[in-house]
Amino acid sequence: MKSARQNDGIVGAWGGHRHQRRELGRTWRDAVGRAKEMERSTGLAHKVKAARSEFGRPAPRHAPQDVSENRLIQTRLELKFWTNGVPQIDAVRPKQCLGCGAASHAPGRKLVVVGHGVRRRQMRGPVRVGAEPEEVEYQIRRYRCRQCGAVMTAGPRERLRCRLFSLPAITWAIALYGMGRVSSRQVRGQISPWRKVGAAADRTWQTLRRWLGAARDGRLFPFAIKASGRPRQVADRLSRVLMAKAPPSFASAPAAEQSVAGALYSAMGITPCAVV
Asked: Residues 35, 39, 44, CA angle at the centre, nearest 5°?
């Protein structure tokens, strides 16, 4: 039987070990906190992530820095196929990534370009020449490349990137202003679905001016086309260039319809064939 003094020694030893473990834990937590604070203050966080990835720890997945480039997939489906319901994910999946060029589905491998949800969008203006202007809501499909992280959107053929108005509406407005010699106020009445405007905007339409300015710099259409001169001259030249891009089946159609057809077919990457 152990004496009380021996028991006190054992309890004291164990108590000392517990005290040492608590002290070591505090020291370790303080050291980790100081290291994280130093990373944040000196900007070493990106170097730590790079070092972790080099030693086998995967770096966090994120989208590339150049996602602001054009990632719009111009499908051949009209707007009515997108308003009634979103097409199936495989129906409008791109064949390759628009960022890195990787094949969407290589034989014997997993999918590279996968679905990334849907988004709601809005389109204004007439969808064809002579139609009434309207405001329509529809949904687009998004895809993401698992290799480079680029995000792509697939939508109707009438859609333009960063524009609320449809491609036929913008092309028809330019044709009316350029070849038709119609005032910008009358163009607004045929293209815009909004009938109530302010007193300052009643005499002109600044949106048409912005379209012509973007077209002058080559930023309006998804294909390379430029024109220079005064606004009405730019509109006339753009309309005639788009008429030349229309397929031969529109040769007997009015000038505005030829211009819209040329814009739609060029956006989809279809070039007119020679008449045989």
From this structure: 135
Question: From CA 148, how far away is CA 61, in angstroms rounded?
Answer: 9
For 34-84, what is each residue's pLDDT tens digit? 666 666 665 555 554 544 444 444 444 444 444 445 578 888 888 888 888
What's phi and psi for 273, nearest 5 deg? -90, 155
Which two three-digit tokens encode residue 151? Answer: 């995000």
Domain ranges for the chain, please list them. Answer: 20-60, 72-155, 167-267
Report helix, strand or coil for 121. Answer: strand
- Helix%, strand%, coil% for the chain, nearest 5: 40, 10, 45
Report the DSSP beta bridge partners of residue 122: 137
As to burial, measured by CB atoms within 10 angstroms (0-12 exposed, 13-18 middle, 19+ buried), residue 15 is exposed
Question: What pTM value is reported for the model?
Answer: 0.69
Residue holding tokens 């930023």? 219
Alpha carbon distance 188, 92 (integer Å)? 33
DSSP H/E element including 141: strand 135-145
Contact 86, 78 (CB under 8 A): no
Q: Look up residue 216 and give its two tokens.
A: 């002058």
